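Blinded run. Sample ID left blank on purpose so nobody reads anything into the name before looking at the predicted structure. Input follows.
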Amino acid sequence: MAWEPMLNELATQRSGRLLAFATMLAGPSAADDLVQEAVIATFSRGRGFASVAQAEQYVRRAIATRYIDSVRKDSARRSAEQRAALAPVMPDATAGLGADAQVDAALASLAPRVRACVVLRYMEDLSIRETAHVLGLSEGTVKRYVADGLAVLNARLGTTTPDDNSLAPVTTTEGGAR
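Blinded prediction complete.
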């Protein structure tokens, strides 16, 4: 089939990057399944891609979308269990193993879309525009989510991020900005 060479190339060249991306979003315990589901969904529909980079971008978006959907479903399921007075679901104690547990815990505290924006922006080094494109959001929404996410992360981790205005001071003169 026409998609098989692209899938093989994606698996050999980009699987590590895709797994790292999924790990940042969902944690190490769910990353493998998340990547596998996204790849299956992407290639099971017989999509044709012009390049491995295009296929990888599509799989990344599928990973992010599936992660957000899974968190939404888990949240809805927990709400239904609480309404039915079932025992609360215990968090996965192994989610932070193999990585910095403090950063993992701080990332896990973020809402799914906020977490996806922060991971794409700062851990995958995508621009605001690229992050917005991957997640199907507006650039303003991505900026808001990233700002909110960084504020929560800084509070939880006891860190600070430089104010953008302090990095490049702008002064005005009659001729305009310098």
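Unblinding after everyone has recorded impressions. The longest strand covers residues 172-173.
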